[in-house]
Amino acid sequence: MTDTKTPTRSRLPHHRLVAYTVATELLLAVRAADIRDPKLREQALRAAKSACLNTAEAAGRVSPADKARVFAIARGECVEAAAAVEIAALADDTTKEAAEAVISSADRLYALLTGLVR
């Protein structure tokens, strides 16, 4: 769909946010955790996807209060995704290393979103 010789320059606001990039890294880390418990895996993936989507949605909002509200929702989803993988590691449904990778991404995203909420 795109010519490889000319880079695509998006005008969408979420593409300019470091927080969105980190949210997608969190999603990839949650996927890579390959949680064996299907319900816990679904919950972790849903929360990570929601963190991405809410970060993008907030970037497209106009009023500062509305942006802050949706960034706060994204922050809550970030914490939920991290907790789900952490619980999976405690239950031997994923590795400790996978959980540490998710927590590392979640820590960074949480800090970025906290700055955007204020």
Radius of gyration: 15 Å
CATH superfamily: 23S rRNA-intervening sequence
Which percent bin holds the helix content? over 70%
The number of helical elements comes to 4
Q: Classify the beta-strand content into a percent band.
A: under 5%
The chain-level structural class is mainly alpha
Q: What best-fitting shape do the alpha-carbon axes yield?
A: elongated
N/C terminus separation: 38 Å
Count of β-strands: 0
Question: Tell me about the biggest sheet?
Answer: none
Second-tier CATH architecture: Up-down Bundle
- CATH fold descriptor: de novo design (two linked rop proteins)
How many domain regions? 1
Poorly predicted parts: none
**H and E string:** HHHH
CATH top-level class: Mainly Alpha
The pLDDT mean sits at 94
What does this 3D model show about the protein?
Helix content is 75%, strand content 0%. With 118 residues, it is mainly α. The protein has one domain (14-117): 23S rRNA-intervening sequence (de novo design (two linked rop proteins), Up-down Bundle). It is elongated, with a radius of gyration of 15 Å. The chain starts with 17 loop residues before the first helix and ends with a helix.
